[in-house]
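Appendix B. Extra example for self-study. Work through it before the problem class; the solution is given directly after the inputs so you can check yourself.
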Amino acid sequence: MATDKREIILSGIRPTGRLHYGNYFGAIRAFLDLQEQGHRCYYFIADYHALTTITERMDLYRQTIDMLRTYVACGLDPAKSVIYRQSDLPCTAELTLLLGMITNIGHLERGTTYKDKMAKLTSESEGLEGNPLSYGLLGYPVLMAADILIVKADKVPVGDDQRQHVEMAIEMARKFNHRFGEVLKVPASVPRNALRLPGLDGSAKMGKSDNNTLDLLDDPKTVLAKIKGVQTTTDPLPLSSDSDDPDAIIPQMPPSLGALYRMLHLLAPEDVYQDFVGKYRRGEKFYGTLKTTLAEHVSKFNAPIIEGFNAPGNTEATVCEFLRANAEKVTETALDTVESCKAAMGLGRSLFRA
Ligand code: TYM
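Solution. Structure tokens for the complete assembly:
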């Protein structure tokens, strides 16, 4: 049989809530493009990773199923892409163990996600009581590296916030190969222009745990309420650049207004966006229409996704059916990687897998 020369794409999303616009424009949009370009795409739900925050069994199950239904509603197609659940591929945990042996703890402690979480917890009143800083949280990037390396990924489409984690995976693969021989495929870095969508509160990142998201399943009423609630009382700051480039203009705006412009640029036709840039430059009073226009575009974007999510063919039963079939498709490649690593390290073969 001829070998498959297509590029291998891998990415995942934690099932810690509904998919939001950061997830969509940072990741899902690229998932769809790559799927349609005919690459070998592996898209999974990172349910092991979600255990660093979710503690309720039924929450995790429900959110995993709903996230898979949202994947399908967005256009991810289990017949074209291998869509699976991370915990259906337990050999990922074995590769995590092996990679953990070559990973320096200091390196993990310097990870920005870990440091941010640590800073947040120590600044909260209860401090570190209850020890929410688990071994799993510190080792998060090792598990993520295992996800990537186990399928021999060439590319990892993610938003800018995951850049450092992908870099860590690259370093782990290089280190492993240097020590044990060329076993692991080294994936490409995240491109420089990867997106980081700001939150509706004007913070640098829209994120599920920050209560600042616009979600793909938000109905028109919710969309309007969320957008109307965005703080726009600050006076516009003059734009020093007369460039059309949103990356030059938007950072000069007050942050929450900038978040609205960023969304408008992603969703509305160029002339609508440019019209509002013109209004901004001329110092007109336009915040009300900016918000209603943006809300209309968001609701228009959400409508087919909400419809797809509720479609009769997109149920818990159909999702569970393709999960079973797709877990099998990814298992062969994954076991091949783990067995090659074990052999390279001088460990025994897993006889029960032979
Ligand atoms: P997660 O679940 O936080 O986010 C899923 C994807 O959405 C992107 N994203 C954003 N992009 C731009 N702007 C934002 N505001 C924004 N918020 C989220 C993320 O960059 C990501 O692409 N650790 C990962 C899940 C994971 C994974 C992996 C990803 C586990 N193993 C292996 C790739 C490869 C995470 O927590 O993503």
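Self-check: The domain at 8-197+315-345 is CATH 3.40.50.620 (Rossmann fold). If your reasoning did not lead you there, revisit section 3.
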